[in-house]
Amino acid sequence: MKILHFKSELRFLLKEARIKRNKIGFVPTMGALHPGHISLIERAKSENDLVVCSIFVNPTQFDNPEDLKKYPRTLEQDCFLLQEAACDVVFAPSAQEMYPQLPELSINFGNLETVMEGAFRKGHFNGVGIVVAKLFHIVQPDNAYFGLKDLQQVAVLNRLVRDLDFDLNLIACPTKREIDGLAMSSRNVRLSKEARMIAPNIYKSLNMAKNALLAGKSSSEVKDDILLFYEDLPEFKLEYFEITDFENLQNIVDFRPGKKTALCVVAYLDGVRLIDNLVF
Ligand code: AMP
User: Fold this and answer.
1) Cα(113)–Cα(90) distance, rounded to whole angstroms?
2) Does the annotation mark 124 as catalytic?
3) How many CB atoms within 10 Å of residue 44?
4) Ligand 1 contact, 139 CB (< 6 A)
5) What is the pTM of this model?
6) What's the confidence (pLDDT) of residue 257?
């Protein structure tokens, strides 16, 4: 496995691969890798000749400087896990390498950025869009892999690929969970032992909401139930719970079974921001 830190060396290596008509799979990450990330690498391995994983904690997508500072950085351990998963290339650039100057361009994702993550994390999707577009230009993958855990990110990046004509397939992969249902996340290591024990309530709330909707409760009744659920768990600070259309992530006021729906939640626990969703 090659570990590269500079765009020029990565471009050189991939040019050679393209001449050999190797299919390139790409998995962008911010590191602190866990089995959720590795499931993306494995999928990419099974569908491509060469797999590139990028590790870059992108400062421009953090609206909270404290969150950026506290984001776990474990490059050595990440490379160990990637090597085990037979990843071919790790691209771990510095911030200076990615941003010799801060981009002046900005991207507006329309109605996708007025809701949920877009509404609560100002500038987040602009930061994500710019860094992913840069990485797509550098790697020029045939296939790029993203987790449905970040459902809104997948929607935003589908729009990026469509509107800017990126010549690649964006492949959305299922959320990998711990046995107790907690969605795997790099942030989970920051939870105290006590917080980790109650963290699966997030997934529990999503399932409760799904069952209530399918049993005939209205969207507003279910939203009220979920508010009460979190009121009974004062360790959590609920940021949002939304019942949305899977395609455009806009609020569903009148839930009807049969239409693909995404339940999306963000809650703080122990000061750690946890995100999850359930699609049905
Ligand atoms: P991150 O390093 O958190 O930016 O994540 C990098 C990629 O891994 C993103 O496409 C995430 O959606 C994906 N990912 C993160 N956690 C999981 C998980 N538990 N299951 C599947 N994919 C995940």
Assistant:
1) 30
2) no
3) 27
4) no
5) 0.96
6) 87
Ligand 1, atom 7, lies closest to the CA of 29
- Residue to substitute in 40, 51, 187, 206 for testing ligand 1 pocket (most ligand atoms within 8 angstroms of CB): 40
Query: Residue 91 has what pLDDT?
Result: 98
Query: What confidence score (pLDDT) does residue 118 get?
Result: 95
- Could you give the domains of the chain? 2-173 (3.40.50.620), 186-275 (3.30.1300.10)
147 lines ligand 1 (CB under 6 A): yes
**Any idea of the CA torsion for 227, 230, 235, 238, to the nearest 10 degrees?**
-40
Q: Is 60 in the pocket of ligand 1 (CB under 6 A)?
A: no
- How far is Cα 85 from Cα 205, in angstroms, rounded to an integer? 33
Low-confidence spans in the chain with pLDDT less than 50: none
**Structure tokens belonging to residue 132:** 């992913």
Nearest ligand 1 atom, CA 153: 12
